[in-house]
Amino acid sequence: MRHMMWIYAVLIFVLSEARSMDTAVRHLAFNQGTEVNLTCSNKTWNEMLFVIWKIQFQTKKECRISFNDGTNDDSCNDGKSLRNTSSALSYLHIPNFSDTDQGRYECESVYRGGNDNLAIHVAIIGPVPPSISAWLYHKDNKMVAVCKAERGKPAASISWSHMGNVSSVTNYSDGFFTVESHLELPEGMDTENLSCTIRHPHWTEERILVLKPEKGYFPWLYVLIVVVIIVILAGFLFLARKKIITLRRCQPSDTSPSKSPPAEDVEEVEPYASYVQRVNSIYNSSADFFT
């Protein structure tokens, strides 16, 4: 048994050395969203001892998919699988091919009588539409609008519905472009109709995004100003009320009974009344005399 293990180890070592010298290289490109089948060898399942696919992605960690002695091993866990054709030929199946599937696919298949080694560089054909997003945020008493077109090929173009200080940054990574445009707006400017327009060769029509405050944003500055104003008004009203109460307490209270009007002196009035009466009587006598 130990001799068989040594023989197997030597066989693997020899095959690895041969692989490093005889690995064929291919470059393939596929449309995004299509199903892709990669073939490593023209041998059938019955002839194979094992097959290993080692995948080095451009944007994520590498993984392996293998078949050995009737057992499948998959560390990718993203839908890729080893399948057979109707004639029992083995191939690697990639459903819904996307930009995250791009990379280098290395295959090693060992069968009775030999081995095949292949490296396939897989890419996307034609333009790739970007992921788009837009949002607003505050910075140094200014409103800043951001419009982003991420991981597209070629780079997208961005324009704004409002005038202002515009700055754009374009990053290139793993064969894709990310464009991010910033628009600075004066504080207090109406942003109800603010929008950005994104154009890309993959689209037949432009994309228009209406900007909204970023998720989790809350206008704390305005809330703080309102709270301060309310506190000041409440303090002013409290002091005014306290002052009024103090002034009322300081005023003397008029509790003495109201004085009745002075009584008329009858003695002083009656002589005048009698005098008037005498005058009237004399007047009457004179009147009678002349009549």
TrEMBL record:
GO molecular function list: signaling receptor activity
A Pfam family reported for this protein in Swiss-Prot or TrEMBL: V-set
Recorded topology in the membrane: Single-pass membrane protein
GO BP of this protein: regulation of neuroinflammatory response
GO cellular component: cell surface; membrane
Top-level taxonomic group: Eukaryota
Keywords: Disulfide bond, Glycoprotein, Membrane, Receptor, Signal, Transmembrane, Transmembrane helix
Boundaries of every Ig-like domain copy: 32-123, 130-210
Residues spanning the membrane: 217-239
Keyword Secreted listed: no
Signal peptide: 1-20
InterPro entries membership: CD200R, CD80_C2-set, Ig-like_dom, Ig-like_dom_sf, Ig-like_fold, Ig_V-set
Localization per Swiss-Prot or TrEMBL: Membrane
Family: Belongs to the CD200R family.
Protein name as catalogued: Ig-like domain-containing protein
